[in-house]
Amino acid sequence: VRIEARPTDYEIMIGKGLIRDLGQIARKSLPATASRIALISNKRVFELFGGPARQSLESAGFDVHPWLMGEGERYKSDRTLNKALEFLSESRFARSDAVFALGGGVVGDLAGFAAAVYMRGLPLVQIPTTLLSQIDSSVGGKTAINTSRGKNLIGAFHQPHAVVIDTDTLVSLPRRELTAGYCEAIKQGAAGDRALFDRTLEFLSSTNGTDSFEELGHIIALQCEFKAAIVAGDELEDVGREDSRSRKILNFGHTTAHALEAVTAYKRFRHGEAVGYGMVVAGLISKGLGLLDHSELELLTDAVRACGRLPPCDDLDVEQIVETLAHDKKTVLGKLKWVLLNRVGHAVIVDGDSISPKLLRDSLHTAFRPNN
Ligand SMILES: NC(=O)c1ccc[n+]([C@@H]2O[C@H](COP(=O)([O-])OP(=O)(O)OC[C@H]3O[C@@H](n4cnc5c(N)ncnc54)[C@H](O)[C@@H]3O)[C@@H](O)[C@H]2O)c1
Question: Which atom of ligand 1 is nearest to the CA of 181?
Answer without folding.
Answer: 15
